[in-house]
């Protein structure tokens, strides 16, 4: 179904009306593939003074060490101006920096040009963020889902829930009731998201169906896609004999990544991982090989003397484990793509149907954040403001 064009399928932007532009850091050093490097970068920044601290910070028009900003919701970073800050590093949090590339971020508003506090306010263990990838039809992954705050650009971010605790789904009002009438059972918000992941097309339209059997098959595929993309809970594994293993030890500082298609071997210099199926190596999002992108982010040297140049001196064992899991995830997702393409739409629910039911266009209020501000958030210089 994702590869086939159907007339009058509703837009994702109408089915999930509230969206937020992606975060914009303004500097690379507050993110890293390991949290220890971030703490060292912070300590190095605070040991510098005056012009030295400012140069290390890498000011932009939006942020400098003299900017006055409040805390990010739910985080405990300081709020004094960074030019005279002396406190500890805020505890790094896991974020999605690129498709299937989970790294770490210092969650300090003073370091981020555009932090999108409205996303931080609804981020919790129940939340699922979807993010547009800009992928074309050949890529097959126009939309990602993650439990982590996504830093990907340029696509918009659509939280599944408008409030913390899984409250108030970010779905067009009335959509769940209409689907319930057509399918014979009202679906959960997470089922609708699963269907979207299984059927969304490159133009970000989503064909809907009133066929309960087809809906069930699509939701099952989408649920598995969601589990693989979020990577929370039980870890994914390939069947015995297909699981990738380290066959030759990885070097302390690998520099090259080469794939041997005939032997299904991934070579990191003299290190070897196999079996790595060709569909894992070929798995792309927006024209970029996921495995190559992940590796490049960890080995490309930063400019000497910058905070981003502070990184592990050797390849951590944790990265090897992450790479093995990533190979597993993209292999399984590649297998799901063909199953998703095999879905044939029947009993369509069109955008015209949704307009006749007064579900589309969604009300303007549904495109704005919900009011979740029932607590105080610390503003600049430690001042509290009720918002």
Provide a quick synopsis of the model.
This protein is α+β, with helices and mostly antiparallel strands. The chain has 11 helices and 19 strands. Helix 6 crosses helix 7.
Task: Give the DSSP E fraction (strand runs of 2 or more residues).
Answer: 15-25%
Number of beta strands: 19
Q: How would you state the average pLDDT, rounded?
A: 93
Radius of gyration: 22 Å
The helix count comes to 11
The gross shape turns out to be flat
The ordered H/E elements are HEHHEEHEEEEEEHHEHEEEEHEEHHEHEE
Q: What distance separates the N and C termini?
A: 45 Å
Low-confidence stretches: none
Widest sheet: strand ordering? 1-3-2-6
- Helicity level: 25-40%
Largest sheet geometry: 4 strands, mixed
What structural class do the secondary elements suggest?
alpha+beta
Account of the protein in words:
This protein is α+β, with helices and mostly antiparallel strands and 387 residues long. It has a domain at 245-301 and 315-341. The chain is 29% helix and 16% strand. It has 11 helices and 19 strands. It has helices at residues 12-15, 35-47, 50-57, 117-121, 175-183, 189-199, 212-230, 278-281, 290-299, 317-341, 351-356, and strands at residues 31-32, 93-98, 101-105, 129-132, 143-146, 149-150, 157-159, 161-163, 167-169, 208-209, 245-248, 257-260, 265-268, 271-274, 284-285, 288-289, 348-349, 376-378, 384-386. It has a 4-stranded mixed sheet with strand order 1-3-2-6. The protein has a 4-stranded antiparallel sheet with strand order 11-14-13-12, with no helix packed on it. β15 and β16 (288-289) form a beta hairpin. α6 crosses α7 (212-230), α7 runs antiparallel to α10 (317-341) and α9 runs antiparallel to α10. The longest helix is centred in the C-terminal third of the chain and has 25 residues, at 317-341. The chain is flat, with a radius of gyration of 22 Å. It starts with 11 loop residues before the first helix and ends with a strand. The relative contact order is 0.18. The mean pLDDT is 93.
